[in-house]
Write a structure and sequence with these properties.
Number of domains: 1
Strand order of the largest sheet: 3-2-1-4-5
CATH class: Mainly Beta
Strand content: over 45%
CATH topology: OB fold (Dihydrolipoamide Acetyltransferase, E2P)
Radius of gyration: 10 Å
Largest sheet: 5 strands, antiparallel
Helix content: under 10%
Number of helices: 0
Order of helices and strands: EEEEE
Shape: globular
């Protein structure tokens, strides 16, 4: 698992980008969000924990929720 921060998210299209603690950027698709009821919190600066995949983040959980 990695920690990171959302740097971009487009709610209309359902995707964005996470900047991870390892310096890599990971594609984020809305379907990777574990708790869908928290999807409105996906905005720049929000901290997340996720499983890194290539090239997409998997099992994304918003920290503190």
């Amino acid at each position: 698992m990695l920690e990171g921060e959302i740097i971009f998210f487009d709610h209309k299209r359902g995707y964005g980008v996470i900047k991870a603690e390892d310096g890599q950027e990971y594609f984020l698709h809305i379907k990777s969000l574990v708790e869908w009821h928290n999807r409105k919190q996906l905005k720049p600066g929000v901290r997340v924990v996720f499983t890194p995949g290539k090239p997409q983040a998997l099992h994304v959980v918003i920290e503190g929720v």
